[in-house]
Write a structure and sequence with these properties.
single chain, 2 domains, 41% helix, Rossmann fold, 11 helices
């Protein structure tokens, strides 16, 4: 009788272990915008779908879109952690503190925060060197502008956006020393109406090339309607402005997400700080359109030089617009300088709020 009881218990334990093994890893994604923004959030969701395609039934993914940065973010992150999600990606800068707070309450859950700078034992951070792509499109803008006035629609004045403005203008000035960058802030990541209005306002001021660090294709559509060249943001937005788009800086998160979920499945996840760019394939340049062949060739050369590590977009001499030397001749910006960048280079027109 005892032997039968032990055998039954052993079989029950084996069945339980098999069932536990068969349970999929629950992975959550928190998005600041809608998956249909065709920009930032759209690209993160493409990465989520790549995870599902790579691991099939071994994973179960969940996403929550259009989550405001603040108290709502903390609530949503906590709900995912409490509902069995063992890996949670929070995909906007403003989710940083909420992520850290929830992570402290759920030490057995792993969290990954995009574009932030705070880590913990169970919190990793990841980012992409968007400024490398901005150097490529800045080269194009410097050649394409006839007024020497380039427009830049910014979301928020955080270092990620500020370094993009500076990188684009430095590259533009390298081929056109008279180039200026006119910045307008919309104080939102995704607001098609305000983004379009900002583009129209810039065009009305004589700006003849439009850039953006916002998430909808509205600026590109406004540029298309006005017959002004522009660039896509985060994804290839050419369908929204086929006559206007010159190229786009694409964020490709899929390889990173697949790798990090794989680490969880292999029980090999560690808190890391990842910042990939053109060389790592996290920043991708869309095909070149609507420009002379020689401009495309020049831009491709800049792209290749950055990818191979032969050129850094922030190489001195660089002076800010107050006349302060930030980098001496031949000096390259450190990651610490880039991640804390709160100044504009000479030639940027527009406010830089604190």
């Amino acid at each position: 009788m005892l032997r039968k009881t032990l055998l039954a218990a052993t079989l029950a334990l084996s069945a339980a272990a098999a069932a536990a093994q068969a349970e999929p890893l629950k992975v959550g994604f928190i998005y600041v915008g809608p998956v249909g923004d065709f920009g930032w959030t759209y690209q993160h969701d493409q990465g989520r779908q790549a995870v599902e395609a790579a691991y099939g039934e071994a994973v179960e993914t969940t996403f929550v879109e259009s989550v405001p940065e603040g108290a709502d973010a903390e609530r949503v992150i906590r709900q995912l952690a409490a509902s069995g999600h063992k890996l949670i990606f929070t995909t906007s800068f403003g989710f940083m503190d909420a992520t850290l707070k929830v992570a402290e309450q759920f030490p057995d859950v792993k969290f990954e925060h995009a574009t932030g700078f705070k880590t913990a034992d169970n919190v990793a951070i990841y980012n992409a060197r968007f400024y490398e792509g901005r150097a490529v499109i800045g080269t194009i803008a410097g050649r394409m502008t006839k007024s020497n006035k380039i427009g830049y629609i910014g979301s928020f004045p955080i270092p990620e956006v500020v370094m993009g403005v500076n990188s684009a203008l430095l590259a533009a000035q390298a081929v056109n020393p008279a180039a200026e960058m006119h910045v307008v802030w919309v104080n939102s990541w995704y607001d098609p109406g305000r983004e379009a209005d900002a583009a129209k306002a810039l065009i009305a001021q004589g700006i003849d090339v439009i850039m953006q660090h916002t998430d909808s294709p509205a600026p590109l559509q406004a540029a298309e309607a006005a017959g002004v060249p522009a660039f896509g943001q985060a994804s290839d937005m050419r369908r929204f402005g086929p006559a206007a788009q010159l190229t786009a800086v694409i964020d490709d998160w899929a390889p990173y997400y697949v790798e990090r979920v794989g680490a969880m499945l292999d029980d090999a996840w560690e808190s890391t700080d990842t910042w990939g760019g053109l060389a790592e394939g996290e920043v991708v340049i869309a095909p070149y359109w609507n420009m002379p062949y020689e401009v495309a060739t020049e831009a491709a050369a800049v792209e290749r030089s950055i990818r191979l590590g032969r050129h850094h977009p922030f190489t001195g001499p660089i002076t800010d617009r107050d006349g302060v030397e930030r980098l001496a001749a031949g000096e390259t910006a450190s990651d610490e300088m880039l991640l804390g960048m709160n100044w504009f280079v000479k030639g940027v027109v527009g406010d830089l709020p604190n």
